[in-house]
Design a protein that fits this description.
Layout (H helix, E strand, L loop, with lengths): L13 E5 L4 E5 L2 E2 L2 E2 L3 E4 L4 E4 L8 E2 L2 E5 L4 E5 L2 E2 L2 E2 L3 E4 L4 E4 L12 E5 L4 E9 L2 E9 L4 E4 L12 E5 L4 E9 L2 E9 L17
Antiparallel strand pairs: 1-2, 2-5, 3-4, 5-6, 7-10, 8-9, 9-12, 10-11, 12-13, 14-15, 15-16, 16-17, 18-19, 19-20
Length: about 210
């Protein structure tokens, strides 16, 4: 494709599809010798640079995923001019808003994050910080980050990929770099966290 407008050459950025607004959202990345704090959107024909009043700080190797229930793009972490980051931001198509939960994953970059449609939660795994690669799992419900613990966990790793497999309601993780080098393993993730429900009506009078 040869759109009339495009973001500058970059790497380490994040890209996600906003299903409600039918736009692809791009944020950050490394442009030349600098990290970027630019937000761009793709509508299928061209790129448009967005100009929100407030944005996450410039960063690369962050993670973004789309919360379909809340219709927000969620961004976490990355590496910027001040080092590893631990902030959580949400994009509604017009404004970036920083979430301020009482607990959050430690600062990191190179992690992976995906939206679990069945349970309406973000799932985040791994990445790296100043001490090395990580193997922790966190979930974001739109209000709080909650760390999850499992008897079996993938090796600590960074630069892996995750996706949501709707057919069996599982998050899929593949590969990445661990302490021993590039991996080629596949993992499935699920949680015992109960689903949400809502009472409708008053029932039958018997």
């Amino acid at each position: 494709l040869h759109p009339p407008v495009s973001p500058p050459p970059c790497s380490g950025h994040a890209l996600v599809y906003d299903g409600a607004r039918q736009r692809v959202v791009l944020f950050g990345g490394r442009v030349g010798q600098q990290v970027s704090d630019h937000t761009w959107e793709w509508d299928g024909q061209t790129w448009t640079r967005m100009n929100p009043q407030r944005s996450p700080t410039a960063r690369e190797m962050h993670a973004m995923a789309y919360d379909a229930a809340r219709q927000r793009v969620v961004l976490f972490g990355g590496y910027g001019n001040s080092g590893y980051d631990e902030s959580t931001w949400e994009w509604d198509g017009t404004t970036w808003t920083e979430a301020l939960p009482s607990s959050a994953p430690p600062p990191r970059s190179g992690h992976a994050m995906v939206y679990d449609h069945g349970r309406r939660r973000m799932v985040l795994f791994g990445g790296q910080d100043a001490s090395g690669v990580l193997d922790d799992t966190w979930e974001w419900d739109g209000v709080q980050w909650i760390q999850q613990f499992s008897r079996f966990t993938p090796l600590p790793r960074t630069r892996h990929a995750m996706g949501y497999f709707a057919a069996n309601s599982r998050v899929v993780l593949f590969a990445g770099y661990s302490l021993t080098g590039a991996e080629d393993d596949t993992w499935l993730y699920s949680s015992l966290t109960p689903g949400r429900y809502q009472v409708l009506g008053t029932g039958c009078l018997v």
